[in-house]
Design a protein that fits this description.
- The protein has 12 helices and 4 strands, in the order αααβαβββαααααααα.
- With 315 residues, the chain is an alpha+beta fold.
- It has one domain.
- The longest helix has 36 residues.
- It is elongated.
- It starts with a helix and ends in a 35-residue tail after the last helix.
- One of its GO terms (biological process) is proteolysis.
């Protein structure tokens, strides 16, 4: 009962944090866009965006898979991985088992795309080389938790608001520059807080988006541990990823990039903190643990070093 209460409290706190951050981002988006376009146009933009997000609950799955040169992994090619994904999806009560895709990249990477009804999980060549099956199970459970909790839709909504603020900020700054002669000559008056909002609002939105992503990551870690009954498996995978890549890839992906690519390293909290939290929940109700055998999937030896692809993704 104590473990159940702790899990419920954890989920409630994360939900409230996510709700608060989304509300703050929505408020900031309203202020900035309304300053430039007026409240009526802003209301129309918001209504249109919400309808669009409801009709298109995630980024176009096929387009992202094509951009990453992803190839479908069948049960004949990788029965352990596909079987593990099916079992984890059953435990998560997903309406449909996500498809598993292989990405020809040396960068250790995993991400999910789509909606609970039609989703895919991609794993890179570098990830399959690095992890054993137990650790991969933790990573797959992490991505399944994102899908089950609709995190892809939530982060997509945050993406739309962040981009709207960024565009409005640039337009507003351009208009300010055009009207600068009138301001200097005293023919126009602009409240002092308007330029500050226009300059700093994209950074504030980026920080809130980062905080939202981190909250969802902690929740996905907790969900993965619940699905596998083996938080140490995911902790071991995270430790290997940290040793293999360090903070180098995050330093490349994050600076100056408003919405980084979906990735196991995307805007994540410090690995040490994630591992600490996972080890604190070792007493979750145990489930049959996934095997720790080496992964037998035909990885490639002719891949180029990680680089930015023609679609702008680092792979």
């Amino acid at each position: 009962m104590c473990r159940v209460s702790s899990a419920v409290r954890h989920r409630l706190i994360n939900f409230l944090q996510s709700l608060g951050l989304l509300a703050a981002m929505g408020g900031m988006a309203w202020i900035i866009v309304a300053t430039i376009a007026g409240p009526e146009v802003t209301a129309a933009i918001i209504i249109g965006s919400v309808i669009g997000m409801m009709l298109l609950p995630s980024l176009p799955k096929d387009a992202l898979l094509m951009a990453h040169r992803a190839k479908r992994i069948t049960g004949e090619q990788f029965p352990e991985g596909v079987g593990t994904l099916a079992e984890l999806s059953r435990r998560a009560a997903l309406p449909r088992v996500p498809s598993l895709y292989y990405i020809p990249s040396k960068l250790p990477n995993a991400f999910a795309v789509g909606s609970p009804e039609d989703s895919a999980i991609c794993v890179s060549d570098g990830l399959l080389r690095l992890l054993d099956l137990r650790e991969l199970s933790g990573v797959l459970a992490h991505e399944i938790s994102h899908i089950a909790h609709n995190d892809l839709w939530i982060m997509g909504l945050a993406d739309v608001m962040s981009r709207a603020v960024s565009i409005a900020s640039w337009i507003g700054q351009f208009l300010l520059i055009l009207n600068l002669p009138l301001v200097v000559s005293g023919q126009a008056y602009i409240p002092w807080h308007i330029p500050l909002l226009l300059v700093f609002s994209p950074t504030i939105m980026a920080l809130m988006q980062l905080a939202l992503s981190r909250t969802r990551e902690y929740d996905a870690d907790h969900g993965a541990a619940s699905l596998t009954g083996d938080p140490d498996g995911l902790a071991s995978a995270l430790s290997k990823l940290e040793r293999k890549t360090g903070r180098f890839w995050e330093d490349i992906v994050l600076p100056g990039r408003r919405i980084p690519q979906p990735s196991l390293l995307r805007t994540h909290p410090p690995t040490e903190e994630r591992i600490r939290r996972l080890r604190e929940i070792r007493n979750l109700a145990p489930r049959p643990r996934m095997p720790g055998a080496l992964i037998e999937y035909p990885v490639r030896d002719d891949l180029a070093p990680p680089r930015f692809g023609k679609f702008g993704f680092f792979q």
